[in-house]
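Many introductory courses stop at the sequence. We go one step further.
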Amino acid sequence: MSDHLLSLASGVLPEFTPEQTAAAAVAAGWPAVGIWVEPATWTSAIAADVRRRVEDAGVIVLDVEVIWLKPGADDPDHLRIIDAGEAIGARNVLVVSSDPDPQATADKLARLVKHAASAKMRVCLEFAAFTEVKSLAAALDIIARSHSDTGLLIDPLHFARTGATPDMLRGINPHRLPYAQFCDAAATGPAAENVPAIIEEALDLRLDVGQGALPLKALLDTMPAQIPLSIELRSKALRDAYGDPDARAAALLAATRQGLQALSG
């Protein structure tokens, strides 16, 4: 369990800038970090600052987020997010879809994969009940229609709340799983039709690894060994307890390491 590359997900620090997120990851001792990219406000100066901070500390940029696919023509901002990721050395870009057409989603993903190829970045599709890719089966279908390098991103919370079980991952080509998100949560969540409550849980109610009831050990056992883990602990309690980004990042890293050690015991 301790051999996984651990990354501070950008969603842990939603009120802070990309530079502050990178600085917090470095100060807390995270081996990797995720960066949120807003194309409207992203600049070359931000990219240079983030890249300097992570390179000086030897910290990996595991991913950038988020590309939201929508019906209609390709959005040029999506390419800008990939370009921003390339500028800071990111390995992956997270994609979700609001396009109800599976083939259109697959085609858009394929075009993003081709754009990201020169930067050696992986494009990874995440599924969740509040998106138009609402299940593991739907995500796998879209990925199969897309490109051989299109990745699948597993988030334990969305995985559980959409009815997936760890055994469903058996047989998936490991190449499709370049990294995963990780967190814990209560055994049961909101009703499937209560989208506002589902979103609230995803943004505010996640728990530290080992503090909930998700089948995290079984999930790790069915994913590639040593898969990098983006610790996606969006939590109002964590934000309220730690207003300082460095302190929040440090507290989460300590709790995550403790939780992973307990899982392996």
